[in-house]
Amino acid sequence: MENLDSLKDIWKNQEESKIRFSESDINKMVQKKSSSIVKWILIISLLEFILPNLVYLFTDFESTRAFYQQYGLSNVMMFYSIIHVVIILGFIYVFYKNYRNISAESTVKVLLGNILKTRRTVKNYIYYNLTIMAIIGLNMFYAVYSSEDFINGLNEGANMTTMWIVSIILLLLALSIFWLFYRIIYGIFLKKLKSNYKALSSKNNL
Fold first, then answer.
1. What is the pLDDT of residue 93?
2. Residue 23's Cα: distance from chain center in Å?
3. Does residue 30 contact residue 107 with C-beta atoms inside 8 Å?
4. CA 175 from centre of chain
5. Measured between alpha carbons, how far is 138 from 58 in angstroms, rounded to an integer?
6. Distance from CA of residue 30 to its chain's centroid?
7. In this structure, what is the dihedral angle of CA atoms 118, 120, 126, 129, given to the nearest 10 degrees?
8. What is the DSSP string of 87-128?
């Protein structure tokens, strides 16, 4: 954005500079920068989808399946997995469309609309991931804590209320860590897109 701001200053004071940039040149530069940002969002979302699945290949399938079967989670986890894959692929497709739209030649108004749409998509992507994590976490806690195997194995002095409170605190802590990750990674891109949007809006009085 520093280079863009410098070009904007030069464009506004062209009588004092031998370098001349038209309004169209500035718009194209903003478009190029925005396109690059969305491309990185697409790449990171793809990595975020692929890497956990690669790690899953090296996990103990039998232990995981036995755990799900023991607590009656096999069907619900399969359902969550299918829904999650479909929704994530949908987000990746939308990110790709946003990238294509911003990369394509368009008017300033259309470009501004595409930048806003991309920022909204990224925010929805973050909210979805945090929400599905919370739902799956609570579902697993409930399935385990309400099962006969777990209840029969409890010590006499065990307090279920305390266990629920501790579990929810741990879940909130995990969600906070993921939120911080999204805040750092995607927040950087959102901030840059917002700067580009402001640059175009102020320059074109929109």
1. 95
2. 33
3. no
4. 13
5. 26
6. 23
7. -100
8. HHHHHHHHHHHHHHHHHS---HHHHHHHHHHHHHHHHHHHHH
Contact in structure between 82 and 39 (CB atoms under 8 Å): no
DSSP state of 59: S
Query: Which is nearest to 93 in space by CA: 37, 34, 49?
Result: 49
Q: What is the pLDDT of residues 49-73, one digit of tens each?
A: 888 877 777 777 788 888 888 888 9
On whether the CB atoms of residues 126 and 132 are closer than 8 A, the answer is no
pLDDT at 19: 47
Cα separation, 103 vs 33, whole angstroms: 9
Q: Which parts of the chain are beta strand (E)?
A: none
**C-beta atoms surrounding 26 within 10 Å:** 20
The packing angle between helices 108-145 and 160-203, to 10°, is 180
Which residues of the chain register pLDDT less than 70? 1-26, 203-206
- CA–CA separation, 75 and 138 (whole Å): 16
What is the pLDDT, as a whole number, of residue 17? 46
User: Rounded to whole angstroms, how far apart are CA atoms 102 and 118?
Assistant: 9
Task: Give residue-wise pLDDT tens across range 129-151.
Answer: 999 999 999 999 999 998 888 88
Two tokens, residue 5: 């701001």
Closest to 103 (Cα-Cα) out of 45, 37, 7 = 37
Identify the residue whose tokens are 């580009």. 196
Measured in whole angstroms, the distance separating CA 172 from the mean position of its chain's CA atoms is 18
